[in-house]
Amino acid sequence: MQLAEDMGLKVERRQIPEEELETFEEAGACGTAAVISPISRIDDVETGKSYVFGEKPGPISEKLFNKLRGIQYGIEEDVHGWTRVVID
Protein backbone atom coordinates (compact mmCIF):
# COMPACT_ATOMS: atom_id res chain seq x y z
CA MET A 1 0.00 0.00 0.00
CA GLN A 2 2.83 2.37 0.86
CA LEU A 3 4.59 1.83 -2.46
CA ALA A 4 1.34 2.41 -4.35
CA GLU A 5 0.85 5.69 -2.50
CA ASP A 6 4.48 6.61 -3.22
CA MET A 7 3.72 6.08 -6.92
CA GLY A 8 0.75 8.46 -6.71
CA LEU A 9 -1.93 5.77 -6.77
CA LYS A 10 -5.11 6.08 -4.73
CA VAL A 11 -5.12 3.38 -2.05
CA GLU A 12 -8.22 2.08 -0.28
CA ARG A 13 -8.61 -0.69 2.28
CA ARG A 14 -12.20 -1.93 2.10
CA GLN A 15 -14.48 -4.81 1.27
CA ILE A 16 -15.05 -5.19 -2.48
CA PRO A 17 -18.62 -5.93 -3.60
CA GLU A 18 -18.70 -8.74 -6.14
CA GLU A 19 -20.44 -6.50 -8.68
CA GLU A 20 -17.39 -4.21 -8.68
CA LEU A 21 -15.04 -6.99 -9.84
CA GLU A 22 -16.14 -6.60 -13.44
CA THR A 23 -14.66 -3.05 -13.43
CA PHE A 24 -11.17 -4.24 -12.42
CA GLU A 25 -8.38 -4.35 -14.99
CA GLU A 26 -6.05 -6.39 -12.76
CA ALA A 27 -6.10 -8.07 -9.37
CA GLY A 28 -3.51 -9.40 -6.97
CA ALA A 29 -3.12 -10.83 -3.50
CA CYS A 30 -0.68 -9.47 -0.93
CA GLY A 31 0.34 -10.82 2.43
CA THR A 32 3.17 -11.09 4.90
CA ALA A 33 5.51 -12.40 2.19
CA ALA A 34 5.40 -8.80 0.90
CA VAL A 35 5.08 -9.64 -2.78
CA ILE A 36 2.11 -9.39 -5.11
CA SER A 37 0.68 -12.62 -6.47
CA PRO A 38 -1.37 -11.89 -9.58
CA ILE A 39 -4.91 -13.23 -9.67
CA SER A 40 -5.89 -14.28 -13.17
CA ARG A 41 -9.48 -15.29 -12.44
CA ILE A 42 -12.14 -15.33 -9.72
CA ASP A 43 -15.07 -17.74 -10.08
CA ASP A 44 -18.39 -17.41 -8.29
CA VAL A 45 -19.41 -21.04 -7.85
CA GLU A 46 -22.95 -20.10 -6.84
CA THR A 47 -23.78 -18.12 -9.99
CA GLY A 48 -21.23 -19.59 -12.41
CA LYS A 49 -19.94 -16.09 -13.19
CA SER A 50 -16.20 -15.63 -13.80
CA TYR A 51 -14.11 -12.50 -13.55
CA VAL A 52 -10.96 -12.76 -15.68
CA PHE A 53 -7.98 -10.44 -15.21
CA GLY A 54 -5.43 -12.01 -17.56
CA GLU A 55 -2.76 -14.67 -17.37
CA LYS A 56 0.12 -12.28 -16.60
CA PRO A 57 0.50 -9.56 -13.97
CA GLY A 58 -0.92 -6.21 -15.04
CA PRO A 59 1.29 -3.15 -15.47
CA ILE A 60 0.55 -1.71 -12.02
CA SER A 61 1.14 -5.01 -10.23
CA GLU A 62 4.36 -5.45 -12.17
CA LYS A 63 5.60 -1.95 -11.23
CA LEU A 64 4.81 -2.55 -7.56
CA PHE A 65 6.48 -5.97 -7.59
CA ASN A 66 9.61 -4.64 -9.30
CA LYS A 67 9.85 -1.68 -6.94
CA LEU A 68 9.57 -3.91 -3.87
CA ARG A 69 12.09 -6.44 -5.18
CA GLY A 70 14.43 -3.58 -6.04
CA ILE A 71 14.24 -2.37 -2.43
CA GLN A 72 14.75 -5.89 -1.10
CA TYR A 73 17.85 -6.40 -3.26
CA GLY A 74 19.30 -2.95 -2.58
CA ILE A 75 18.84 -1.75 -6.17
CA GLU A 76 16.20 0.81 -5.17
CA GLU A 77 16.52 3.22 -2.26
CA ASP A 78 14.70 2.10 0.91
CA VAL A 79 13.17 5.43 1.96
CA HIS A 80 10.93 3.74 4.56
CA GLY A 81 13.64 1.84 6.46
CA TRP A 82 12.17 -1.58 5.73
CA THR A 83 15.43 -3.44 5.11
CA ARG A 84 18.28 -4.39 7.41
CA VAL A 85 21.76 -5.53 6.46
CA VAL A 86 22.63 -8.72 8.32
CA ILE A 87 26.27 -9.74 8.50
CA ASP A 88 27.09 -13.24 9.58
Short description:
With 88 residues, the protein is of the alpha+beta class. It is built from two helices and four strands; from the N terminus they run αββββα.
* Rounded mean pLDDT score: 90
The helix count comes to 2
| Amino-to-carboxy terminus distance | 32 Å
Please mark out the parts with pLDDT under 50 across 5 or more consecutive residues, or reply none. Answer: none
Profile the largest sheet: 2 strands, antiparallel
How many beta strands in the DSSP annotation? 4
Structural class: alpha+beta
Give the overall form: elongated
Q: Percent helix among the residues?
A: 10-25%
Q: Classify the beta-strand content into a percent band.
A: 5-15%
Rounded to an integer, what's the Rg over CA atoms? 16 Å
| Run of helices and strands | HEEEEH
Major sheet strand order: 1-2
Descriptive notes:
The protein is α+β, with helices and mostly antiparallel strands and 88 residues long. 22% of the residues lie in helices and 14% in strands. The strands form two sheets. It has a two-stranded antiparallel ribbon. It has a two-stranded antiparallel ribbon with strand order 3-4. The longest helix has 14 residues, at 59-72. It starts with a helix and ends in a 16-residue tail after the last helix.
